Amino acid sequence: MSTQQSFAAAVAGDSPPPPRRARESHARSWNGLGVGFLAKLGLMAVINALGLAAVWSAFVNGAWVLLGAMVVLLVLADWIYFTRRHVPLKYLFPGLTFLAVFQLFTIGYTGYVALTNYGTGHNVSQEQAVDALLSQNEKKVPDSPSFPLTIVRQGDALGFAVVQGGAAKVGAADQPLELAADATVVDSVVTAVPGWEVVPKGQVLSDAVLADEVLALRVPLTDEAQDGSIRTGDATIGAVYRSVLTYDATAQTMTNTETGVVYRATDEGRFVADDGTALPVGWKVFVGLENFGTAFTDDTYSGPLVKIVLWTFVFALASVVVSFFFGLVLALLYNDPRVRGRAVLRTLFILPYAFPAFLSALLWRGMLNANPDYGIVNQLFFFGARIEWLDDPTLAKISLVMVNLWLSYPYWFLVCTGALQSLPDDVQEAARIDGAGPWRTFRSITLPLLLVSTAPLLIASFAFNFNNFTLIYMLTGGGPRFTDTSATLGHTDILISMVYQISGVSGGRADYGLASALSLIIFVVIGVISALMFRRTRQLEEVN
Amino acid sequence: MRTTHAPGSVMARNARARVRGRRRRWFAEVSWKYVVAAVVVVYAAFPLVYVLSASLAAGGTLTGSTSLFRSVSAENYQALDATRFWQWAGNSLVVATATAIGSVLMGAAAAYAFSRFRFSGRRTGLTTLLIIQMFPQMLAFVAIFLLLLSLGEVIPVLGLNSKLALIAVYLGGALGSNTLLMYGFFNSVPRELDEAAKIDGASHSQIYWTIILRLVTPILAVVGLLSFISTFGEFILARVILTSESNWTLAVGMYGWVSDQLNANWGLFAAGAVLAALPVLMLFLFLQKYIVGGLTAGSVKG
């Protein structure tokens, strides 16, 4: 929101308009600017062409929000790059666009999804859910007339061509049956349709995959799912199928015409009968704060959530403290002019940092394998003992912190070395003259000064480790699993990996609403950490 | 410590005394540091030596590779040809390079605007960026997934399973993380240069492309490099967005090789890891001076 404000403020502008000159502005001029102007014109032409194509596509698909957003962005782009005013915006616009769409919008959208029950079984709008239910529950109409049927194809899409009451009609899964006046009909069977390729019967019968596709194909009679469709059982004769469910839009009910059971639409986004049975397809509804309630009170999640939140803090804190400490000690030891070959040592010390982190985590996963025949750590350093580094809850946690130490001490070594070298010599000298020993100098002079300059980095590193998904997911995958809950969560899961498991974006049952609600908790924690950091460092006031 | 202000003779005497003192104290204060250094080097380098050894071992599992360099063969490296490794490496390269270039261009343009123009909302904008950079983009991966799901219905190239969409998502985080780093550097370029150019009749875009960008090349290189390295190792967004195996990046693909305990192919992984890490390792070690400067200026390795 604040970026929007700054955006609006930037658009409004506070500088006086430049004095009018007789000549045309740079922004529109042909004279003298040559290559640069032509390049801009070309670029804007491409952007406009792509933008218009996208707008058209949004129009065809009826995606009105997207259409609106795209039109606004396109008009803004044209206005900004062809006006002579608002020069800063010309430089900010591309970055701001990406920032607005892929970061600010997604943060806001997370907030919205957190208030819905979006997820498996509640993926679509009510209208789409009704259509899906109607077409999933179709049965052959008992007295249906049968039509001679021809399988046709348009690109990858299969379709049916039938003769109904002497007239040829053609349609596909997403294209209701319509008259095809120019089709060729021989013996009341369609043999050719312009725009479609006829698939010979022999091919359907010999190709099992194709045959399955044909048997599953449903060509709607009209745009209304209620009107039913044409299907075939043998690829030669088509029949009318109609849903056993009927939908009453005003009463918001689904009625099963065979059993007479009435299903009513509920606030939870499902059709539920009086006996409690529900139809399988539901829709997305606004559920308010229910997801937060689920996270904190539902037995499946509340127990793990508490443990996971605790472990997230412990992991982030321990990682920062341990690796900072080790890095600091190394920096103190080797920031010593008497040690030769410090450049070589430094390069060797930071090797773990130069190795891509995801590969390191996977590599340690292999090295810490419990079976000494496979895991070199057990084999070489623990005399072939079978130590379950990654499968025991406590050891897995220790392993994570230790591997993170290996990954990140070089960073602190570099940071502390830099900070030590920039400390003023005179303060330390003054301490020595006053009779302070090395330890006292370190405690009272060096360390406090060092902490002042590294505090923002320490806090940033805490925030980074708070969300260190890659390490957790690659090393332990969150395991070992909790045994007291049915959720797929484990002892080393941190909040972000818990979100990942629950969201189901990688397969399995999806609950976007609950996952988003948990992401919001992370946002709050990070927000508090940032606030602390900004207060600590007064970075915000320094901006000028 | 410094004796540069002292007269020459005193300096020489001091130096001689210090040399004697150094020799006496050397064993007590310095020698053990080499021993510690050796231990630390072993700790730092052991996993890397191990992965090299495992990549050269014959046979596909870690069996036999628990002792270092027992056998040396190129078997694992040759086996990579039968996998999608090179395809993934290509994907990673394309995505990371495009993201690096895009980040540099957009970050530099924004830094130029903030550094050289005075407009209302400028302070607010900088402060907002400072706050935004605290919230890593991947926190909103569920929303990003859903956004691409619906975007893909209208513009398929920006939908799920598209590398272009992944690049666009990464670029969404470009402004927040890079602008402030560059902003400081842009400020260090004297404004007199632009003013001189302006008097000579140069437009703002000519000043930007021909004067400023050339003077800030070091920071452009650092930002590009950091962006490349962090994109190269990014996992969660790539995993969520790229669904089909042919589009995977190295991070997603190689995770698949070893994530399954029973079918883990460590030999293949080790060979792939060596090949994938080598360019990054080289870049990092040769350019460590620049990278370290950029890292400690505020960002943390991602």
Automatic annotation (TrEMBL), chain A:
Q: Extract one GO molecular function annotation from the record.
A: ABC-type maltose transporter activity
Pfam families per UniProt? BPD_transp_1, TM_PBP2_N
GO CC, one annotated term: maltose transport complex
Q: Where is this region: Disordered?
A: 1-26
Q: Where does it localize? A: Cell membrane
Checking PROSITE patterns in the record gives: ABC_TM1
Does the keyword Transmembrane helix belong to this entry?
yes
Q: Does the keyword Cell membrane apply?
A: yes
Q: Which SUPFAM superfamilies match?
A: MalF N-terminal region-like, MetI-like
UniProt KW keywords: Cell membrane, Membrane, Sugar transport, Transmembrane, Transmembrane helix, Transport
Q: What Gene Ontology terms for biological process does this UniProt record contain?
A: maltodextrin transmembrane transport
Species name for this entry? Cellulomonas uda
The record's function comment reads: Part of the ABC transporter complex MalEFGK involved in maltose/maltodextrin import. Probably responsible for the translocation of the substrate across the membrane.
Cited Gene3D superfamilies? MalF N-terminal region-like (1.20.58.370), MetI-like (1.10.3720.10)
Indicate where this protein is primarily found: membrane
TM ranges: 30-56, 62-82, 91-115, 308-334, 343-364, 398-420, 441-464, 512-534
Which InterPro entries does the UniProt record give? Answer: MalF_N, MetI-like, MetI-like_sf, TM_PBP2_N
Instruction: Specify the protein name.
Output: Maltose/maltodextrin transport system permease protein
Membrane topology listed for this record: Multi-pass membrane protein
Q: Which family does it belong to?
A: Belongs to the binding-protein-dependent transport system permease family. MalFG subfamily.
Q: Where is the ABC transmembrane type-1 domain?
A: 309-533
TrEMBL record, chain B:
One GO molecular-function entry: ABC-type maltose transporter activity
Is Membrane one of the keywords UniProt gives this record? yes
CDD domains named in the record: TM_PBP2
The membrane spanning regions, by residue number, are 32-52, 93-114, 126-152, 164-186, 207-229, 266-287
Q: Name one Pfam family in it.
A: BPD_transp_1
Q: Which Gene3D superfamilies match?
A: MetI-like (1.10.3720.10)
Q: Where's the ABC transmembrane type-1 domain? A: 89-287
Q: What cellular component terms from Gene Ontology apply here?
A: plasma membrane
Protein keywords: Cell membrane, Membrane, Sugar transport, Transmembrane, Transmembrane helix, Transport
| Localization of this protein | Cell membrane
A GO BP entry is: maltodextrin transmembrane transport
Membrane topology per record: Multi-pass membrane protein
Q: What is its main location?
A: membrane
Instruction: Give the UniProt family note.
Output: Belongs to the binding-protein-dependent transport system permease family. MalFG subfamily.
This chain's protein is named Sugar ABC transporter permease
**Natural source organism:** Cellulomonas uda
Classification lineage: Bacteria, Bacillati, Actinomycetota, Actinomycetes, Micrococcales
